[in-house]
Amino acid sequence: MDDRLTGCSEADLATWRFADAARRLVAGRSAGMTSGAAPGSVLPEALEPLWLPVAVLWERFLRFDPAAPLWPDRDRFAVSSVRMRPLLGAFLRLTGSTAAAPDLTVTGYPAAGVSVGLAGQPVAIAAGMALAEQTLEKRFGQSLVNHRTWLLSGRADLETGLAMEAAMLAGQYHLHRLCVMTDIPPGSVSDPAADMTLNCFQAAGWSVRRIRPAGVAEVAAVLAATLRSRRPVLLAFEGRFPAYIPQPPQGETSGAWVAVTRRGTTLRRSWLRRLTRHRQRAVFERATGGGITDRFTEDWRRLWRGLRRPEELNSDGYLALEFLERLIPESVFLTSAMDAGHAALRPLPVAVRACGAREGAMAGFLNGMTLHGGVRGFGVAALGSADRLRPALRFAAITRQRILCVLAEGAAGAGGVLWQQPEQLAGLRAMKDLAVFRPGSRREVVACWEGALRWEHGPAVMIISPSVSGDPDTEAGLQGGRGDPGRGGYILREAEGGLLNRSVTLLTSGGEAGLALETARLLEARGGCRVAVVSLPCWEIFALQDRDYRDGVLGVAPRAALEAASGFGWERWTGGDGLFIGPEENPRAELNPESVLPDLSAEHCAGRIAHFLRLPSRGRRGAEGG
Amino acid sequence: MDDRLTGCSEADLATWRFADAARRLVAGRSAGMTSGAAPGSVLPEALEPLWLPVAVLWERFLRFDPAAPLWPDRDRFAVSSVRMRPLLGAFLRLTGSTAAAPDLTVTGYPAAGVSVGLAGQPVAIAAGMALAEQTLEKRFGQSLVNHRTWLLSGRADLETGLAMEAAMLAGQYHLHRLCVMTDIPPGSVSDPAADMTLNCFQAAGWSVRRIRPAGVAEVAAVLAATLRSRRPVLLAFEGRFPAYIPQPPQGETSGAWVAVTRRGTTLRRSWLRRLTRHRQRAVFERATGGGITDRFTEDWRRLWRGLRRPEELNSDGYLALEFLERLIPESVFLTSAMDAGHAALRPLPVAVRACGAREGAMAGFLNGMTLHGGVRGFGVAALGSADRLRPALRFAAITRQRILCVLAEGAAGAGGVLWQQPEQLAGLRAMKDLAVFRPGSRREVVACWEGALRWEHGPAVMIISPSVSGDPDTEAGLQGGRGDPGRGGYILREAEGGLLNRSVTLLTSGGEAGLALETARLLEARGGCRVAVVSLPCWEIFALQDRDYRDGVLGVAPRAALEAASGFGWERWTGGDGLFIGPEENPRAELNPESVLPDLSAEHCAGRIAHFLRLPSRGRRGAEGG
What per-residue string of b and e applies to A414-423 under the rule 16 or more CB within 10 Å gives b? Predict the structure, then answer.
């Protein structure tokens, strides 16, 4: 018999049986799988050292009430991989949870990470949950908020750069109610790679413990120490599960585990009593309830209408952040520390949590905060770092987390716009269920923020353009324009003679609206060409409009598109024969900020369009057509 | 006067003057800039502690010959940001380099990192250079390969997850000829964030030194110790540059620094003597020369033709790796350690360097290896991790580095293909100058590899599909097909009656070719519909073909596209009115590998196309059209 079982107390033996029962549940399920089963259904070897620690945790420490799986002050228990989900399911079943199968919200955490593309994401998400808890505890006090986040993580997740970013931030933020449990290979002294990961967590300010094959008492002592830690904790367990666990003579043990969860019920009842007489009760319930109210929309629009001073007229998305902070007390703003020379990200007008150049973890935190609830996280970074946000955005898109990232475009350089982001917009728009907003005027900024906050299919990205203008043309004096920026696309300027009389429809977004309008004026001035300008601040919302609306905006005339980005994907709106005008000529500008392209001039754009439409040349021909 | 200058020897004073001269060069340049200058032109505060160490390094340690800037055995000196490029330029000018301005290749390293999106990339690139050096040293010995990589890095770069990934791999690989120099804020004891970064590098197996304001002797001692280190080295310097450096009475010092670089000339001459009598001289020169020869193409095709056994007929991209290893001795294969359950990445048939779940650093290494030269790096990972490769691919695209990543699609599950990657293909195709290859048959595999190896505009990505087939239909018995997979797109099956008689052109790529052919057969069998199937294994190469060829392949009939991915971007080929058939219906499959979608059936596809073409219904109507 395994050393750890000899001389065990009856209580400890019961814990072994708990672990064994969960393990058998999963093994039985695996054994029943056909050989054609999808990967991820087998009993993972890496779980072997973890059965007992998880059993001790659930039996003696975890704060949860199976009867109320969404209790706001519950501990969050997360697993890093779909392959660990059966383990979660087994413990839920044994403790009689009303949620039969672990879904996305049972314990506040989905089983993420089946795709290697998302490796490391679970660590960032768990840290985000702990950050949400810390934020709420500061706001409402320990009598209402006093729980922990536990993450069961595979080793591969911990060795990623994303996990290290999250670990470093968790260390800096002192997220001491975060505990990650993992396995280490047997005799890890001889595995420098595994050891290196643990050492790096320690260097990031974590309390790291290596636990060699241990019995119930040792595991309980380690978990008790975790509760007292002033730093985030990483526990690395080693050792196989014993081959044989002695069962009690009477044979029947199921139901025994339901008893231990009465602890959770007691905890929750006493919490409910504290909530009832708490002076912040209403505020707390509103915060944990979430959601954007009609009241918000009203207040939001009033704030924008209230702007009078001229400098405020040059307002942009950052002002929106200030308004959000005023209207949504649950707001938490995370931001990457910007390169000093990067003018795009000015100091934000709101209280922020600085994440350093760790945009990947920052976006992962947003997922964790949203999954936790009670806070509303916003991430602010440069559009140039969009690629580093993608794994988190992707996770949010798949799990329909409504996270919101604010991405600032490169600032205007000496000679004009610095074309830094040839394909970032296209890459983001390609992601299903993610909505990309790129407003170009005050009116669009207001509408896009409302749209982004209400977008319910997944994450949203708000692009902040330095060239947002209060241009009267785009603000108020729409020349026969119609439609609503809130519908994703609308007519900014109708052609002379109306929709059916257009020679060309010029599509655009964001800061290029002014250029598009000037191009239209130039083209009409040369005669024989009637130009409509259509702004598409959000493709995804425009695509959801009914066909009549879209046709009424896009028209049937030939189409051209103008955007300070790669043209990839624009064929969706211009058709296969459409024209795209963009800055693709100098992608290397990024490497040398002094090689700023001159602004795409209206003359250039008009020339391209004239060529595209085969208009009779006016003296010297314009630039080459598409 | 600064303490560090009092009692200085004349030789040390000369070094101070060297640093001072470089600093004045850059400061003078900055002072001359107009206020509208692009960001990055000012003298960065962070460089202050670094002027002296860099001067000591260049004067006494750096192995370089200004007369031969591309000497293969030179030290690589890299800067992490465009803002540091003037520093590099100043030292080059003072040492009389024939390369007046630092361009992309002078010291083997471009000034990268101006975009925050690329933060951390320089650390991975520098480590990749050191890995190339280590590889070459093992192959040719120290008499030919005996140089180092020095990176001057901003602090923000070091705190990224990508830098940590690179640091951990550099530690594991024992890249002791790598040295990163950075600044630390004054009194960094009170800056826990900066301290944390240094501690993490130490935990990753680096030798980390904090150097408080130091004179020439201390800096020289630290650099001498660096040469002896058995681990990669991180040097963090603190302290402002002294306000006043005493100049010699005669006043004239320019030209004095040219003398110190004679050391480099001597080193190179003695290296040339060793090379001349080295038995591997020819091989060494071929390796450092690079390039794919005609001989390679011939050998490559012969290897493929030589395959006979049936199991080899089920060959795919992995077999190609084996052939590459045989034909290109410079090959180095890096691979991410795959999640045990991820069946897509089988053990590779070649010798690999395992990178763990650190695909970001892995791809950055490829950039460094390519910039270094003498080796040809290939990265192998899962397509699901494509997002983590993007910053490195982007760097390669901007700087035209010809790196090659091999990405494996998700494996077939129980019921069919696991639709894991809705938008990865679109996201990659959106990146300018990156070529994406997705072969679906043996013939396409051979042609695509040749195309990828020859792609000279930037990086290439080879998608390895589990459903590549030796299907006779696609291999040999092309039904009236024409064109060449090497041209990026070709006719796999012509419609009855030829090009001008097509009812519809069905576009596809990769493993969906078989499904497309079956769909075509079904449609023709129901009568009244003549279907051509066009395979587009590489959009970027197809787009480079002349218009006649493209028109001859695409035809004028309505177009539909079929691909196991998001349809974003396909409008480029189908036109705005085209149809896309894909698996977008279940993006959540990723979270649960058991919820595998049934294969898109040919019946379903045929129904969609019939609806799209408004063919008379045959009994029950097919699925909804686009």
Answer: bebbbbbbbb
Name the residue of chain B whose CA is nearest to A568's CA: B430
Nearest-neighbour CA in chain B from A562: distance (Å): 16
Contacts of A477 (CB under 8 A, 6+ apart): none
pLDDT, one tens digit per residue, over A25-82 is 888 765 544 333 334 445 677 788 999 999 999 999 999 888 887 889 999 988 887 6
Please list, in sequence order, all residues whose beta carbon lies within 8 angstroms of the beta carbon of residue A530, skipping any fewer than 6 positions away: A495, A496, A497, A501, A502, A503, A504, A524
DSSP B487: G
Minimal C-alpha gap between B120 and chain A (Å): 9
Q: For the CA atoms of chain A, what is the radius of gyration?
A: 29
First vs last C-alpha separation in chain A: 78
Cα–Cα distance for residue pair B354/B365, rounded to 1 Å: 12
| DSSP assignment string, A302-315 | HHHHT--SHHHHT-
Kindly identify which residue of chain A lies nearest to residue B389, measuring between CA atoms: A387
Contact B584 A432 (CB under 8 A): yes
Do residue B172 and residue A165 have CB atoms under 8 angstroms apart? no
Nearest chain B residue to A163 by CA distance is: B161
Contact B156 A337 (CB under 8 A): yes
Dihedral (Cα; A284, A290, A293, A296), 10-degree rounding:
70
For tokens 């085969």, the residue is A614
Q: For residue range B271-311, list pLDDT tens digits in order.
A: 999 999 999 999 999 898 876 777 888 999 898 888 765 45
**Nearest chain A residue (CA) to B39:** A341
Q: Which residue has the tokens 């009593």?
A: A273
B40 vs A contacts (CB less than 8 Å): 341, 593-594
**B432 → closest Cβ in A430, A566, A572:** A566
How far, CA to CA in Å, does A6 sit from each of A10, A218, A220, A252?
Answer: 11, 14, 17, 22
Contact across the interface for A571 and B571, Cβ inside 8 Å = yes
Strand-pair category, B559-562 with B504-508: parallel
- Give residue B463's pLDDT band: very low, low, confident or very high (50, 70, 90): very high
Inter-residue contact A210 to A73 (CB < 8 Å): no
Backbone angles phi, psi at B407, to 5 degrees: -115, 125
pLDDT above 70 (res A441):
yes
Residues of B in contact with A626 (CB under 8 A): none
Mutate to test the interface with B, among A106, A116, A425 (most CBs of B within 10 A): A116
Burial class of B104 by CB neighbour count within 10 A (0 to 12, 13 to 18, 19+): middle
Beta carbons of B355 and B388 less than 8 angstroms apart: no
- CA-based max dimension of chain A: 102
State the amino acid at position B130 in one-letter form: A
Query: CB neighbours of A276 closer than 8 A, spacing ≥ 6?
Result: none
Can you tell me the distance from the alpha carbon of A296 to that of A292, in angstroms, rounded to the nearest whole number? 6
**Would you tell me how many other CB atoms lie within 10 Å of the CB of residue B293?**
12
- In angstroms, what separates the C-alpha of B173 from chain A's closest C-alpha? 11
**Which residues, 6 or more positions from A92, have their beta carbon under 8 angstroms from its beta carbon?**
A66, A99, A100, A101, A102, A106
B121 Cβ partners below 8 Å, 6+ apart?
B112, B113, B157, B162, B364, B367, B391, B392, B395
Q: Are A382 and B117 inside 8 Å of each other by CB?
A: yes
Question: H-helix or E-strand containing A89?
Answer: helix A85-94
Give the span between the Cα atoms of B225 and B220, in whole angstroms: 9
Instruction: With CB atoms and an 8 Å threshold, state whether A116 touches B338.
Output: yes
Alpha-carbon gap, residue B139 to B161, rounded angstroms: 32
